[in-house]
């Protein structure tokens, strides 16, 4: 698996995992935790060229694995707007291809894409059709959480309904996309206010 500049991010530990909820807690492992994952990501970005960052984020988004999408999303938030504008389209493409962490990606885009509202309104009015690539049943479970296409599509709609209209309509049919979106955005806002995570650094 080609991961570009992010190849050493994991170093034998599930360093993506703290990004899933953006929560620190007292008994978290010393080997991997939220602050350590943020630090590792920042170090990689700080020591990489803009071109290599963009190409490596594109690489992460090409795979179906939600873990890679999560790291790509956090990296996007770290980038300056002048760099973000060259790569946000690849995150929208990933939304259209499907991702188990679509709520987190959409929160990231709400911070990063100056045309987020317009694009989101279009999705809400016209709906969305995910184009899943063919995976084995096991690969689908590992990479996409086993989420059926119809639920993944409704999860996107539920996420955007929260981000645009502050509405949460959780159900088993939308995988609680609205609540996931709300929780992740609120936790991200806390990290930013506490200066634990910094936007637009690189």
Number of structurally distinct domains: 1
**Percent of residues in helical segments?**
55-70%
Q: Roughly what fraction of the amino acids lie in strands?
A: under 5%
In this structure, how is the largest beta sheet organized? none
Helical element count? Answer: 11
Averaged pLDDT = 96
What's the overall geometry?
Answer: globular
* CA(first)-CA(last) distance: 25 Å
Structural class comes to mainly alpha
What can you tell me about this protein's structure?
With 202 residues, this protein is mainly α. It has one domain. The protein is 60% helix and 0% strand. The protein has 11 helices and no strands. The protein has helices spanning 18-21, 34-46, 50-62, 66-78, 81-84, 88-97, 102-112, 116-126, 137-144, 149-165, 177-193. It is globular and about 40 Å long. 38% of the residues are buried. The mean pLDDT is 96.
List keywords for this structure.
single chain, 202 residues, mainly alpha, 11 helices, 0% strand, globular
Structure at a glance:
This protein is mostly helical. Helices cover 60% and strands 0% of the residues. It is built from eleven helices and no strands.
């Amino acid at each position: 698996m080609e991961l570009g500049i992010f190849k050493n991010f994991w170093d034998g530990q599930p360093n993506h995992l703290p990004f899933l909820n953006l929560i620190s807690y007292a008994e978290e492992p010393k080997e991997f935790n939220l602050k350590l994952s943020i630090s590792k990501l920042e170090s990689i970005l700080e020591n990489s060229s803009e071109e290599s960052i963009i190409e490596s984020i594109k690489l992460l988004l090409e795979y179906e694995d939600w873990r890679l999408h999560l790291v790509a999303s956090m990296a996007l938030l770290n980038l300056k707007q002048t760099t973000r504008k060259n790569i946000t389209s690849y995150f929208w493409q990933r939304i259209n291809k499907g991702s188990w962490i679509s709520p987190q990606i959409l929160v990231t885009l709400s911070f990063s894409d100056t045309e987020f509202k317009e694009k989101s309104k279009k999705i809400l009015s016209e709906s969305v059709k995910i184009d899943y690539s063919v995976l084995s049943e096991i690969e689908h479970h590992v990479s996409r959480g086993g989420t059926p296409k119809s639920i993944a599509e409704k999860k996107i709609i539920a996420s955007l309904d929260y981000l645009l209209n502050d509405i949460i309509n959780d159900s088993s049919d939308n995988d609680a996309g609205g609540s996931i979106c709300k929780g992740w955005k609120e936790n991200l806002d806390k990290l930013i206010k506490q200066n634990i995570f910094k936007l637009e650094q690189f």
